Amino acid sequence: MDQRINYLLHRFTEAKLSSVERQELLQLAEEYPLLINSEIVKLIEAQMVDRTIDDQQSWDSVLETILASDKPKLKTVKSINLKWWWAAAAVVLIVFSLSTYVNVTRQKEHVFATDFAPGSNKAILTLANGTRISLNDAAAGDLMEDAGMAVTKTANGQLVYHIVKSSEATDDSKTNTITTPNGGEWQIKLPDGSTVWLNAASSLTYPLNLGNGKKREVLLAGEAYFEVAKDKLHPFIVKTSKQEVTVLGTHFNVNSYADEVVTRTTLLEGSVRIVNFENGQGEVLKPGEQSVLNNGMFRVDEVDTDESIAWKNGYFMFNNEKQESILRKIARWYDVKVEFADQSARNVMYYGTVSRFDKISQVLRKFEQTGEVRFDIKDKKLIVYKD
Fold first, then answer.
1. Is-above-0.85 flag for pTM?
2. What is the distance between the alpha carbons of residues 240 and 220, in angstroms, rounded to a whole number?
3. 175-180 and 124-126 strand pairing
4. CA–CA separation, 236 vs 384, rounded Å?
5. Which among 48, 38, 43 is positioned nearest to 11, based on CA atoms?
6. DSSP secondary structure letter of residue 346
7. Which CATH number fits domain 314-386: 3.40.50.1000, 3.55.50.30, 3.90.1150.10, 2.60.120.40?
8. 248-299 pLDDT per residue, tens
9. Is 226 helix (H, G, I), strand (E, B) or coil?
């Protein structure tokens, strides 16, 4: 974070910020004002360290000119290393410039006739007998008991399984499925003690005896973050339509939406082995690595894992990501459809972080402030224009 801010501030002082970088710096200035100020001071200190005496005298002369109208205070200023006054003045100047831009931009903010609230805890639990339970409507407490397992909804919206009759809990024929709609997410504590965070428009199917059979196997469609309970005797397997991930105990994220071209698996802790169903190719990931399955082939990259699990922590995070990809995420979370009035808007790139708890209008304004795109909302359709 510090390095990125320092880079952007250098670009700012050189008047070389792109529209995307400018928006990113404005956002960082709003969210981390103390860090921004600290990095400005470091930037100025670094510039001052290598300056010659002549350069220093030149800087002092500039500052004396600025303060010349206040003669009584001039001696006090002279008794202090003037580079620190210059540093303070530069901090004020840069922060003022940023603030001015923010205020001017806000005066031009687009007012949307229609707005949508962000997603929330919403999911459907489908039991082995086909019964469907709306988890967001169900009261906290015990929901059901089946095959020796009791299912409870906690006060904070988590779904928890626990064994009540060990003799019945070995039945491997019964499964449950939890499904989140567009605009929904849910957290589940599985029968083996593993915890799963399910993103919007996703589903997870799992056996009620998970942890008591020879292996622990679940089926995923969409995106989920897993914190797997360690059990060396029972591997944990996540199957999607294109691949299989095998682990013993670890933290990882799988993104496998049907409308995404690639399947991404990101490892935060432990190790995982991934097998491609199409050709049997396998890859073993180390923490900080991400496998990208595209057109039947794997690629492994070192990545910032924060980006992959930003959704779980309440953010959208973009690292030079195309508008088209970003808006698929927004469409799922706000339950809207996207239409590109200008096809060139699909390829606009963004870098930055946006809260998932804001209304959609607040998110869209941040993109509009780059000057690259603009939006309109009609009914439940988001229309994108190239500015």
1. no
2. 5
3. antiparallel
4. 42
5. 43
6. G
7. 3.55.50.30
8. 789 999 999 999 999 999 999 999 999 999 888 899 999 999 999 998 899 9
9. strand
